[in-house]
Amino acid sequence: MTPQVLIRNVRLYGEGDPVDVLLGDEQILAVGTDLEVGDDAEIVDGTGQIMLPGFVDLHTHLREPGREDTETVDSGSAAAARGGYTAVFAMANTDPVADSVVVTDHVWRRGREVGLVDVHPVGAVTVGLEGKQLAEMGTMAAGVGGVRMFSDDGKCVYDPLLMRRALEYSASLGVLIAQHAEEPRLTVGAVAHEGPTAARLGLAGWPRAAEESIVARDALLARDAGARVHICHASTAGTVELVRWARSQGIAISAEVTPHHLLLDDSRLESYDGINRVNPPLRERSDVEALRRGLADGTIDCVATDHAPHAEQDKCCEFSQARPGMLGLETALSVVIETMVRPGLLDWRGVAKVMSERPAQIVGLDDQGRPLDVGEPANVVLVDPDTEWTVHGPDLASISHNTPYEDMTLPGRVTTTVLRGRITARDGEVFPRTGER
Ligand code: NCD
Ligand code: ZN
User: Fold this and answer.
1) Is the CB of 90 under 6 A from ligand 1?
2) According to the CATH classification, is domain 5-51+375-430 in 2.30.40.10?
3) CA 228 – CA 172 distance, rounded (Å)
4) What's the CATH number for 55-363?
5) Ligand 1 atom nearest to CA at 61
6) Does the beta carbon of 328 lie inside 6 Å of ligand 1?
7) What is the pLDDT of residues 252-268, one digit of tens each?
8) DSSP string computed for 124-184
9) Angstrom distance (rounded) from CA 411 to CA 202
10) Is the pTM of the predicted complex or chain greater than 0.90?
11) CATH 3.20.20.140 domain position(s) in the chain
């Protein structure tokens, strides 16, 4: 049995008067004032802090198996717990690819052993992410890891017939297909957003239409298949409009935006620093603004980190040679506060919605993203909204250090994360089940 945890004097969703919250094994046991507990209970002072449901990340790259020099289930779980996450979805573009139950079950089991966050494996849609033949989605869905989301992320399932079949199959299995929307014929050699900045810097451009044409196509394919489709890392104003249109037609579409696309734009590329290379690329300020508005009005469902660790040698090189991707797990909340809460686009209820409730609903997790009520799962996070911190890559829990926020001072910080009644992170320290990292 996990000892009980009593959180004193905390404001739920940042609303109303502070209360005490008693967390037991698995569940929230009581919410009230001056709650009494036994001697063995762990007491956390929540004064000045906000309690939210634990965050759920639909888009994490943990690099295990294959690139354990850049991230592992262990190190990525530590980053997740420190970032306030109680569940993450580990993308399939590992080596070997997670296109079989052997790999998806391994990732799930490693996550359970480490015990810092529920690691849900994402299965590949196609064998080897090659876009030619459907992977055995049914077998992966039936494994112990119970795969509920499939994606070739890193690559687009661009063959329209194959995508149609995958959507049809997913509808009958009750699972979700998440699409990395990139028409590959429009992005040959592309390293940056196609626009004035890339033109001036002499960088090959990735046009907005490469993303938007796939979003439009897949919305129509999902409509015809009676399936749901999820759009990974929406990056353009046009994608927001297309998702809005599709939903108005009754199409079952959902979309995520990354913290970096909410904060950064392509003016960052002036330095030619590979740290800023990411797929889809950093776009223009007008896209950033549209993504913020889309997230605020619910057109974009949720924030997903696209946490993408890369080795120093793969980032610290010529811009066009740098691997695309940025760390995100430990900085996500602060970036959401900076871009959404501070400008008044979201309140704390809204943060709970986009970082926990909607992502849990999109993948059908019934033990995450739940209300902070008695009897609900004890998956919660405490946030200090008034603090600020300066980001330093080497201080983060990830093995890789490729944060685009180096030396930036960001608002708000996760102080405590609790998974099924057990503290997994507190003031930057993590408490894995294995007792070692
Ligand atoms: C991701 C990666 O490194 O695996 N890179 C990225 O730039 N986003 C793949 C992806 O999410 O497309
Ligand atoms: Zn992607």
Assistant:
1) no
2) yes
3) 11
4) 3.20.20.140
5) 4
6) no
7) 999 999 999 999 999 99
8) PSBGGG-SSSB--HHHHHHSTT---EE--TTS----HHHHHHHHHHHHHHT-EEEE----G
9) 35
10) yes
11) 55-363
Q: Which residues contact 50 (CB under 8 A, 6 or more apart)?
A: 10, 11, 12, 13, 14, 348, 382, 383, 384, 385
What would the pLDDT profile of 294-323 be if each residue is shown by its tens digit? 999 999 999 999 999 999 999 999 999 999
Closest atom of ligand 1 to CA, residue 180: 12
Q: Is 62 annotated as a binding residue?
A: yes
Confidence of residue 38 (pLDDT cuts 50, 70, 90): confident
Q: Which amino acid is at 6?
A: L
Q: Is 9 annotated as a binding residue?
A: no
The total number of residues written for the chain in this structure: 437
User: Which residues are the active-site residues?
Assistant: 306
pLDDT more than 90, % of the chain? 97
Where in the chain is CATH 2.30.40.10? 5-51+375-430
Which residue's CA lies nearest to atom 10 of ligand 1?
A: 154
The pLDDT of residue 436 is 43
The CA 403 to ligand 1 mean position distance, Å, reads 14
